[in-house]
Amino acid sequence: MTPVERPAPRYLAHTSLVWRLLFGTVGDPWPARVTEGLVTICPVAHAELRHGLRPGVDPTPFYLALDQAFGSVPMKHFNRQPEAADVAKRLRALGIGRLPSLMDIVTALTARDHGLTLVHTDDHFEAIGQVCPGIPMIKVVADRPPRPAPDPSTRRRGLLRSLLDD
Question: Which pTM does this prediction carry?
Answer without folding.
Answer: 0.79
